[in-house]
Design a protein that fits this description.
globular; six-stranded mixed sheet; Rossmann fold; three-stranded mixed sheet; alpha/beta
Length: 179
């Protein structure tokens, strides 16, 4: 398995560690997350928090061989952060009623998004609901399952390059920290 790449920002900015994650390493982290869940929980449904949480959630659902759904929760309007708190923009699937549910997101910090998802899913009366994330911060919300706990800023493989006009370029947020 390839080693992740860590970078530091330029000295004139606030020092922050970055984890430049490639697809292979991300796949391994999803597999590790699914194995952790499978050791002591048997979900019947996996719900991924859209946008980025659906990526690890779909992989975990495939590995666990269970149904997958998404729930759109965001603070953003397009790429601009406009809300202090996240909001739900889709309905919780009715299929969760009476089922064991796993809610998955790509990362958790404050836990605002995960708590909102938990409340919305619990309103549909599942038998049980647990949470999982690919990454969790060392302080803040603690999901039931996580692949990796750390404080570095993660450069996800789907976010590393973006379109600028009609050209695929390194995401402007990461130009100073990735190759």
């Amino acid at each position: 398995m390839p080693e992740p790449h860590y970078y530091m920002t330029k000295p004139e900015t606030t020092p922050t560690e970055f984890l430049d994650l490639d697809w292979a390493m991300f796949g391994e982290l999803c597999r590790a997350l699914a194995l952790r869940v499978a050791r002591d929980y048997d979900p019947e449904i996996v719900i991924g928090i859209a946008r980025a949480g659906v990526i690890p959630a779909a992989i975990v659902a495939c590995i666990l061989d269970v149904d997958f759904y998404s729930l759109q929760i965001t603070r953003r309007d397009g790429d601009d952060e406009v809300r202090q708190r996240p909001e739900i923009f889709s309905d919780v699937p009715r299929e969760v009623q009476g089922k064991r549910v796993l809610i998955v997101d790509e990362i958790t910090s404050s836990g605002d998004t995960m708590r909102l998802a938990l409340a919305a899913v619990r309103d549909q009366r599942p038998a049980e609901v647990r949470t999982a994330t690919s990454f969790a911060r060392t302080s803040g919300y603690k999901p039931d399952y996580t692949a990796l706990t750390m404080d570095a800023e993660v450069v996800f493989p789907w976010d590393r390059k973006v379109f600028e006009g009609d050209e695929l370029v390194v995401n402007p947020r990461y130009r100073d920290v990735v190759e």
